[in-house]
What we know:
alpha+beta
Amino acid sequence: xxxxxxxxxxxxxxxMSVLLIITLALSQVSFxxxxxxxxxxxxxxSRYLAEACADEALLYVANNPSYSVASGGQTITLDAIAGTxxxxxxxxxxxxxxxxxxxKHKDSYTNLQVTASLTxxxxxxxxxxxxxxxxxPSCGI
Length: 141
């Protein structure tokens, strides 16, 4: 019995197995990369919400220097239809105001700490930081 095609057949099977493994690995990477993109978009929206909340708080302070928030924070609704919003958790007192805001969008959180100097005629931002963990007063979202 002649086995002339045996080596060619085994080579084709091995080559196809390697190609199948590479294809499966690449499709798995693409599948999980999709979730990274979604998480990044949710974080970006959360950051924009927290920044909008900080801007609102700065506007309130500029219009009314005695502005403060009650215990538990002040919820600011930015889009009533979509149900998006954020919370101003605290606004410091005196000429240097530390404003803490929080926002959440689909399990992505952003905690901002904005420090502003308040004078009789103007308000200027001295720092704008995102904190990885919230350390202010109780302010659930």
